[in-house]
UniProtKB/TrEMBL annotation:
InterPro entries linked to this entry: D-isomer_2_OHA_DH_cat_dom, D-isomer_DH_CS, D-isomer_DH_CS1, D-isomer_DH_NAD-bd, D-LDH-like, NAD(P)-bd_dom_sf
Alphabetic keyword roster: NAD, Oxidoreductase
Name listed for the protein in its UniProt record: 2-hydroxyacid dehydrogenase
Family affiliation: Belongs to the D-isomer specific 2-hydroxyacid dehydrogenase family.
Lineage: Bacteria, Pseudomonadati, Pseudomonadota, Gammaproteobacteria, Pseudomonadales
Amino acid sequence: MRVLFFSSQTYDQDSFTSAAARHGLDLHFQPARLTEDTAALANGHEVVCAFINDDLNADVLKRLADGGTRLIALRSAGYNHVDLAAAKRLGLAVVRVPAYSPHAVAEHAVALILALNRRLHRAYNRTREGNFSLHGLTGFDLHGKTVGVVGTGQIGATFARIMAGFGCKLLAYDPYPNPELLALGATYLELPELLRQAQIISLHCPLTEQTRHLINPQSLAQLQPGAMLINTGRGALIDTPALIEALKDGQLGYLGLDVYEEEAQLFFEDRSDLPLQDDVLARLLTFPNVIVTAHQAFLTREALAAIATTTLDNITRWAAGNPQNLVEG
Ligand code: NAD
C-alpha cells in the first residue's frame, strides 16, 4: 500500500523507516506542506500521512479523495486542522496518535519555565560574548509558587506531577477533573479564579470552538501582574496580538510559546535569510522575557519512535478492516 507523507522532515523519514520494516508498507516522503496546490502529489496513494500544519480543509480532502486516497493517517494527537464532516462525507477515514509521549511535551513546558525564570537565553548569549554580568538575571524559587494547569489530560497531568516535584501549589481548570491531579493536592477552579491566583499558567487543552482565544484581553487582565504564561497546546488558544499589550505594560512578566496562531506558514522551515513578514511574531521576539520555540515540544527520540509505531499500526489495522484510533466528527 502506498503511503505519502506530507511536511516530512529527515527525523520523520528516520523514525518511520526504522519502524516500517515489519509493516510492509510503501512509504514516500514529501517535504511539501499539504495544501490545495500540493494535494495532487498524493494521486495514487491510498494513504496520506499528515502533520499538524498540513491543511485538511474540505477542498483539500476532496482533491485527495478524487486522487484515490482513502485514509488520512495523522501523525499527531491534535486533529483541529481536519474538516471531519467533509472527510466523513467523502468516505475518508481519519486516524491519529492519541498518545505518544506526554513527557516530551510536559518536559518542554517545564524547560520554557526554567529558561524564562532563570533567563538562560540571555545568560547563554552573554557569556559567549565575554559578558559575565548578572545584571537583570534575577529569578525566583519555583518552590512554593502557584501553578495553574489548564487542561489536565495526559500532558497536563504529567506537567502537574513535575511541578509538584518542585514544591509548587497546583491549581487546575478542566471540565473533567482528573483524579490524578486531586491526588497531587490540586484544587480545581473556574478559569478566571485560576488566572487570578496562579503565578505560572500552562495551557494543555485541545483547540476547540470553546477554547479558541481562551486567553484574550479580558483573561490577561485577570492575571497577577508579572505572571508567566506558557503555551505548548495550540497557537489559537491565545489571541496573540493581545499578548503584546500585556507584555508592554508588565501585566505579563514572562511568555513561553511553542505554538503560534499563524505558525503554519512559518514553522519547521529555515527562514533565516528572509525578512520576517509576520509583524505580531516579530514584535513578540523583541521582548527579552519571551521565548518562542517552533513547535518542538513533541520532538524527542521516544516520542518520534512512538508516533511512527502507532501511525504504522493505525494504517495496517485500517487496511485489515480492524481500525483503531479513528477520529470521528
Ligand atoms: P488529552 O486529551 O489527554 O487532554 C486534554 C484535556 O483538555 C482533557 O482532560 C480535556 O477534558 C481538557 N479540555 C477539553 N476542553 C477543555 C476546556 N474548554 N478547558 C480546559 N480543558 C479542556 O490531550 P493531551 O495528550 O494532554 O494533549 C493536550 C493538547 O496538547 C493536544 O490537544 C494538542 O493540542 C497539544 N499538543 C501539543 C504538542 C506540541 O508539540 N506542542 C504535542 C502534542 C499535543
